[in-house]
Design goal:
Elements lengths: L1 H27 L8 H24 L11 H35 L11 H18 L2 E2 L3 H11 L4 H8 L1 H10 L1 E16 L2 E14 L5 E16 L2 E8 L4
Antiparallel strand pairs: 1-2, 2-3, 3-4, 4-5
Helix pairs in contact: 4-5
Length: 244
Amino acid sequence: MSTTRHLVNRRRRLATVGATTTPARTKAGPGPDPETPEDRTATEAAPADETVADGADAEKKPTGDGAPRRRLPRLRIRLPAILCAATLLLGAFAVWAFASAGTLRDEPARQNTALTDIGRTSEVKGQIGEAVGAVFSYDYASPGKSDAAARKHLTGKAVRQHEDMLADVRAQAPKQKLVLTTTVTQSGVELLDGDRARLLIFADQSNTRTGKEEETTYAAAMFAVDAVHRGDTWRIAAIDTFTR
């Protein structure tokens, strides 16, 4: 009995629902069937797929400068690495430059102040030019003058070199009544480093025989001298005639 009643009630409910649904569909007119749950899920999922596709296409589209957008993240990643490498290279170059500068400062040839210390350069040129003229001039009538000049202006091995260079003049001067005069015409400071210097000397020499028949000969000389500063004056320490 209860089972029959339940069946009757269920049929009534179904009939009531069917009657309510049919007019609504009739009023809506012909059209697509209402969406099922599966259709609604597919419809909601479609825009997401399209968005993903549009995003992928957007990454592939070139930007205004012709570079693909998808490469921008890679450029952002590489830029710090490039800057880091450049910094390392600049640092290495700075270390190398500092070490090279220290090496150059340590080399004696790099300590030459002949072109920068104008006052001292002029001083050594003037004093050595005077010294060369004095020690390489000789008068047979007053040989002591040459000896005094040698003691004043020469030092070190230049003393012995000077004696050897004027040995023939000293030997022949009394007989031929020789007068040797040396005049420095030009000089240049090759090296100036503290209390030592090297100069290139150009000089004119005249050798006069004052005997019965006076005769004068002229010659040009070129040689180098090493000079040292002693006390308040420059003295010749070595003489280089460029002969081996």
